[in-house]
Write a structure and sequence with these properties.
The chain has about 170 residues and is an all-alpha fold. The chain is about 65% helix and about 0% strand.
């Protein structure tokens, strides 16, 4: 699943939370996201900025669903998880034995394969600690980090009902 397809399938409340977090913690990131999406649609950012916050977020979510917004969508998901969900990333890396900086930023290269047993345990831990929809969105986003994803993770995303986006 590509990034824009994630935005087509994710619960809108997660997108709302993501953009609210951006607005509250990193106003420049929020403005950049809005500006990039407006430019991508050949609109002036002021057109979108005149809308209410709720309408801005709805407009951004709808725009991120478009194939033409795929690169922006992937980048926003990466930034959100790297800055806004550090504990989740660190927990996942710890569960898989991936070296990281303590905040989930991988040090070195990502592994070529994921051990299925460690992956299942790491997923179970995430689902115990965090919102199920957020975990599913994170794992789908993580699987985009290599060209073909990881087969063990793709299998879990396809077959584990707890990891469905909708």
């Amino acid at each position: 699943m590509t990034a824009h397809e994630l935005f087509q399938n994710v619960n809108p409340s997660l997108v709302q939370d993501m953009f609210q977090w951006m607005r509250e913690t990193d106003r420049n990131l929020y403005k950049t996201a809005l500006g990039s999406l407006a430019s991508n649609r050949k609109l002036r950012p002021q057109f979108v900025q005149k809308k209410s916050i709720a309408d801005q977020i709805t407009w951004m979510h709808n725009t991120l669903r478009l194939k033409s917004s795929d690169m922006i969508a992937e980048h926003l998901l990466q930034v959100y998880f790297m800055k806004g969900q550090e504990e989740m990333l660190a927990s996942f890396c710890d569960g898989l034995g991936i070296e990281h900086d303590g905040k989930g930023q991988v040090e070195g290269n990502l592994p070529e394969t994921l051990d299925a047993e460690k992956l299942k345990a790491a997923i179970d831990t995430l689902l115990e600690k965090f919102d199920t929809g957020l975990v599913a969105l994170y794992l789908h986003t993580f699987n985009l980090q290599t060209p073909d994803g990881w087969s063990a993770l793709a299998d879990a995303l396809e077959n584990d009902e707890r990891l469905k986006l909708a």
